[in-house]
Amino acid sequence: MTLPAFFIAHGSPALAVESNDYTQFLNQLGDRLPAPKAIVVFTAHWDCPEPSVTMDDSHQTLHDFYGFPSNMYTIDYPAPGHSALASEICALFTRSNLPHQPIRGRGLDHGVWVPLLHMYPQANIPVVVVSVDSLRSPQEQYDIGRMLEQLRHDDVLIIGSGGTVHNLRLLGSSDEPEGWAVEFDNWMGERLEKWNTRELFQYDKKAPNARTAVPSYGTEHLAPLFYAMGTADMSRKAKRLFQSYPYGTLSLNCWQFGDGV
């Protein structure tokens, strides 16, 4: 079995306690996929120069946000880790001469556990978290993802968790999408569907409204898309499964990379 990879927008941490079209979509996505033996998540909320990999056999749940309802700080997502898979990921990085760091004791940030809470609420599938480096070029991010492509052929589900439009300074009070956000997403979408990496890798220079959609202080949220995309380099198929805009500009989307199941 070869599982597709996904880019999943994790939106606001409040998504953990919401019930809406997007959370229902995530519920259904988890239901329709064959149960993976493990999940690897590239998360926007772990940004460091060298790829870091969680080596733990168990995880704590990190509540790495503030100003939300008190019940959100009691949520536990006790998914196990998978140290053997983490070691395999490190071996693949070593094979490609990529410096990296095995890490113990980090825990699952909300970019990991919030979407997984809806996809796999029983928290019974092992999770390995891999960091991103927002200062690398999209080409480099894609190439790192490509190093892990063989894992998809071994029942491992790979997810990039972030957001294509994630400018928190421009959140509105309505769910009516802002034109500039839609225009950016549509430009990205057209090139994703055609696997036009030449233009995608230059999105910051070519895409309309790129500096507004992906501000300099928020590039880590787009980075997971390129890591996840790279893990489907052999098939080069992309399909958008969901799109909405809470607060008018916070892009909640899901992209599937690779053949469907």
UniProtKB/TrEMBL annotation:
Keywords: Dioxygenase, Metal-binding, Oxidoreductase, Zinc
Record Gene3D superfamilies: LigB-like
InterPro entries named in the record: Extradiol_dOase_DODA (IPR014436), Xdiol_dOase_suB (IPR004183)
Cofactor requirements of the protein: Zn(2+)
Top-level taxon: Bacteria
GO molecular function: ferrous iron binding; oxidoreductase activity, acting on single donors with incorporation of molecular oxygen, incorporation of two atoms of oxygen; zinc ion binding
SUPFAM superfamilies linked: LigB-like
Pfam families listed in its UniProt record: LigB
Record-annotated Extradiol ring-cleavage dioxygenase class III enzyme subunit B domain positions: 6-250
Family from the record: Belongs to the DODA-type extradiol aromatic ring-opening dioxygenase family.
PANTHER family for the chain: 4,5-DOPA DIOXYGENASE EXTRADIOL-LIKE PROTEIN (PTHR30096)
Protein name as catalogued: Dioxygenase
UniProt organism field: Paenibacillus xylanilyticus
